[in-house]
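Just scan this pair:

***
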Amino acid sequence: MDTLKRRIQEDGRILPGKVIKVDGFLNHQLDIALLQEMGEAFHQRFANVEVDKILTIEASGIAIAAITAQSFNVPVVFAKKSESKTLDHETYTCTVHSYTKNRSYPVHVAKTFLHENENILIIDDFLAKGQAVLGLVDIVHQAKANVVGIGIVIEKGFQDGGKLIREQNLNLHSLAIIDSIEDGVLRFRESSLSDTKGSSL
């Protein structure tokens, strides 16, 4: 998705550990017009599958999941990273590891919001090691529901999350795949929609 790639080039920053900071438009301050364009792109990509609900994880995935859900006209469910007094006692639970925060934590989805045989589209902002997405896949399977697709805004192609997910024959689509970051130069994977160009951040 060219618009997203340009925005990453213009406003993204590379932090130590090859962490990509895009909080100016994706996961702190939100560019709603860009989010709408991304949501429509996901809707086009997954137009051939039936979607009953969209599943994401708090907090950064909620915005793009909600915008995408507007195109599908379906509800959004987000996995919670902490238990609260208002969370149902009956939950689907798994443990995920955060690459950026370097810690593991349990996530929960109330059983009242995921049902057997529902068709679930997973949406998230980043894919690195794949632990968050695979955790959501596990939760869907616990509910005996179906993962019909996985939509990612930015995939780090130089890490193994995408490979792990594709090896499970899951329908993964990423709007931008970054194949390498070397000496401040970020390189996107070629696609049929855009050329691969290195860009310095």
